[in-house]
Write a structure and sequence with these properties.
- This protein folds into two domains: 290 residues, no CATH class; 184 residues, no CATH class.
- The chain has 20 helices and six strands.
- A hairpin with a 5-residue loop joins strand 3 and strand 4.
- The longest helix has 30 residues.
């Protein structure tokens, strides 16, 4: 029996302050007439439950938000903590009480940050990371900030991630210089802390902004000490909440998917070009479609990094892969032909969908002696090759196309599109010739893929290094290239001359340098550098038990842990030499 879908009554957001790209200067963003906020407002939120749940279908969540008195002037500029939030978990309904945060007292500030700072931060974010978060739009977020409808959690997550790429003096409270060692890792720490605190009360409120914030927060946490755990934890939350929202379901099987998660756009304001109701509805529909795929892509990467099958299997995914036609309304582009920025993410999503099959195959729990069959490997090789060779002509990698992607803020995604193809060519090839007698064709394919990774990174370094320094996912591609080169050197030691050996080590030095550059912004990448260094000394991670290897593995895992019980239980006794 199909679940009944309740009507939306009180959960009403709007896109009225959103301007189209042709007229998106902050001065033209409409500010709604400020009225006295009621003492209590009701939000209607929804959570999905499947067939085996006690109450299948959509469960209506009633969230009451009460405003305190306006006597408070709000928090200081540097204080973005969620200390003014309290959550009461009751059987019905959930109650969230929030202070006014001084918005009326400080009309030009968004939760303690001046609008100009937030707008500038959003611009830097989309120029640096725009390709990785296709469901987010600069004009939409800027409009939501101006109308005070932007999620504080989402904005905090964005600031936590991109602050390390901003000038040191951009946020008034910081005293660090961008020339000080480790500045990039410290920048945004207060926003990261704020986002984590804000997340706690939002876990009971499944909403697209929370999913988007979790995806951003995953990368932000990956840049901190010990952030690898946060990467898989927050990405796992994102993919599960996306499932709760039904983002993986198609319109054909999802009853009226816009009913519970639709922002009702008001009429356009005179003199300001805003989306029409029809355009706004199309924008939201396509954004909802696109939002699932960054969560899926992130999960495939995390699964590859952690050595496990992807969280969500391909058979569970009903929603179609995004197309360039889908991306145009997401970008609020309702005119003209397809642009490069409309094409990159659909190509990446299609590639990661195929790569997920390889990740699942590589990480099947069939014992250490299990070897992928040659038939399975060849089948995947064909799929990967067909996907890559089917790329639009504008996506073929060259200096010019990389420059174009960089100007659109998609340099990182463009690099990932190509480097991950070469990465999986190398992975599939090495598994092909390991399962049989050394297969020269497969070995040659792996070598060519590694050289392509080197060449692509060299071009990126010459044009815009932010493409890889802002994309920690590429650390795995660098790792695969370095390991393949080292294994080839070990096999060819007897016949190789000094010149060849020196050239190979120069390539590995280059790859290691790229990892060091990425690790300035994403601290957890240091673990990958350590693994390459150990392999370079001729000892794999499983072959050495010496103290030096243990120090390599632990040198960058420094955490602030306040659980005394855990500390007392698991502390390793010190041993004397």
């Amino acid at each position: 029996m199909s679940p009944a879908w309740p009507a939306v009554e009180d959960f009403v957001l709007n896109l009225g302050a959103v301007t189209l790209p042709s007229n998106h200067h902050s001065a033209s963003i409409a500010t709604p007439t400020a009225g006295r906020r009621p003492k209590q407002i009701q939000l209607r939120m929804f959570r999905r439950y499947g067939p085996t749940a006690v109450a299948p279908g959509l469960k209506r969540l009633s969230v009451a938000v009460g405003a305190r008195s306006d006597s408070s002037s709000g928090p200081p500029l540097e204080d973005l903590r969620e200390a003014d939030m309290s959550t009461s978990m009751q059987q019905a309904p959930s109650c969230v009480t929030s202070s006014g945060c001084g918005d009326d007292a400080m009309p030009d500030y968004f939760y303690g940050l001046h609008f100009d700072v937030v707008y500038r931060a959003l611009y830097i974010f989309f120029q640096t990371f725009g390709g990785h978060f296709p469901s987010l739009n600069n004009q939409v977020l800027a409009g939501h900030v101006r109308s005070r409808q932007a999620s504080k959690f989402l904005i905090s997550s964005i600031l936590a991630l991109e602050a390390r790429f901003c000038p040191a003096d951009m946020f008034q409270s910081t005293t660090d210089s961008d020339s000080e060692p480790g500045y990039e890792r410290r920048a945004g720490a207060r926003f990261l802390k704020a986002a984590k605190e804000q997340l706690m009360c939002l876990l009971v409120v499944p909403a697209p902004d929370v999913v988007a914030g979790l995806i951003v927060l995953s990368l932000a946490e990956f840049g901190s000490n010990g952030g690898e755990g946060g990467l898989w934890m927050f990405s796992g939350m994102a993919i599960r909440m996306a499932q709760d929202l039904g983002l993986h379901r198609s319109d054909a099987t999802d009853l009226d998917p816009q009913a519970a998660f639709y922002d009702h756009a008001p009429l356009g304001l005179q003199g300001i070009r805003v989306p029409t109701d029809e355009q706004s509805a199309l924008h939201q529909q396509k954004s909802r479609l696109v939002m699932f795929w960054p969560a899926f892509t992130l999960d495939v990467y995390v699964s590859l990094l952690m050595g496990r099958p992807p969280t969500i299997r391909r058979a569970e995914i009903e929603v179609p892969l995004p197309t360039a036609d889908d991306m145009k309304p997401v970008h609020l582009d309702f005119d003209g032909s397809h642009k490069m920025c409309h094409i990159i993410f659909p190509a990446m999503a299609r590639s990661m969908y195929i790569f997920s099959e390889a990740v699942e195959l590589f990480n099947l729990n069939k014992g250490a002696e299990y070897i992928c069959s040659l038939e399975e490997i060849e089948n995947l090789e064909k799929k990967v090759a067909q996907c890559y060779h089917g790329l639009d002509a504008s996506l073929i990698f060259s200096t010019d196309t990389y420059k174009k992607s960089s100007s659109d803020g998609h340099a990182g995604l463009f690099l990932m599109l190509h480097l991950y193809f070469y990465t999986f060519v190398a992975l599939l090839s090495t598994r092909g010739y390991r399962s049989l007698i050394v297969h020269e064709r497969s070995k040659r394919s792996a070598q060519v893929a590694c050289q392509k990774i080197l060449q692509t990174l060299a071009i990126a370094e010459a044009v815009d290094d932010k493409g890889y320094t802002a994309t920690p996912f590429l650390a795995y591609s660098i790792f695969v290239a370095a390991c393949t080169l080292l294994e080839d050197m070990a096999l060819d030691t007897e016949g190789a001359g000094d010149f060849i050996t020196t050239a190979d080590f120069a390539d590995i030095d280059f790859l290691s340098q790229k990892l060091r550059e990425i690790s300035r912004f994403f601290h957890s990448v240091n673990a990958t550098s350590d693994a390459i260094r150990v392999k370079r000394r001729g000892r794999g991670p499983d072959s050495g038990n010496g103290r030096e290897d243990k120090e390599d593995a632990e040198s960058h895992c420094v955490l602030e842990l306040q659980d005394k019980g855990i500390i007392n239980r698991y502390t390793t006794p010190s041993t004397s030499d």
